[in-house]
Write a structure and sequence with these properties.
Elements: E1 2-10, H1 14-21, E2 34-36, E3 50-57, E4 60-72, E5 76-82, E6 88-98, E7 101-111, H2 113-117, H3 119-141
Antiparallel strand pairs: 1-7, 2-3, 3-4, 4-5, 5-6, 6-7
Helix pairs in contact: 1-3
Protein name: Polyketide cyclase
Organism: Streptomyces crystallinus
InterPro entries: Polyketide_cyclase/dehydratase, START-like_dom_sf
């Protein structure tokens, strides 16, 4: 298993950050690993919603079938997905209001036989992508 996380304080209220975070039509504007939604994002963002995302991590393209497994509107979005080579991916986005700003934390995990072969490199690449994503998200909501 490889676990990664990143956190940033964004100078915007949680409602504005949540709106941008869950706007799947503009997901690629901030998410550093996203390359497309072949069939669009989830029709309705709720527990059990599913959608397919095309991504690129460590230079490799991947298609992940996501399922929303944690959801509290405006505060928490957790997704778990199945990718290529038996890899299971999880992402958890947590928003915590901090005055007029919002602390955004992203926790990710990767499991599967293929992960153990490249865990160190995967952690470095995924952590860099999370930090880049938070930087871009912060620029869009400020």
């Amino acid at each position: 298993m490889a676990e990664v996380s990143a956190e940033a304080r964004l100078e915007a209220p949680a409602e504005k950050v949540w709106a941008r975070l869950t706007d799947f039509t503009a997901y690629g504007e901030w998410n550093a690993t996203h390359t497309g939604f072949p069939r669009g994002g989830p029709e309705k963002l709720e527990l059990g919603a599913t959608y397919t995302e095309n991504m690129k991590l460590m230079g490799f393209p991947a298609e992940v079938l996501w399922t929303v497994d944690e959801f509290e509107a405006g505060r928490l979005l957790g997704v778990r997905g199945k990718g290529p080579m038996g890899v299971v991916v999880g992402n958890r986005y947590t928003l915590t209001p901090d005055g007029n700003a919002t602390v955004v934390r992203i926790d990710g995990e990767f499991t599967g036989a293929a992960v153990s072969l490249m865990a160190g490199k995967l952690k470095d690449s995924a952590t860099a992508a999370l930090n880049e994503s938070l930087r871009k998200l912060g620029g869009l909501v400020a």
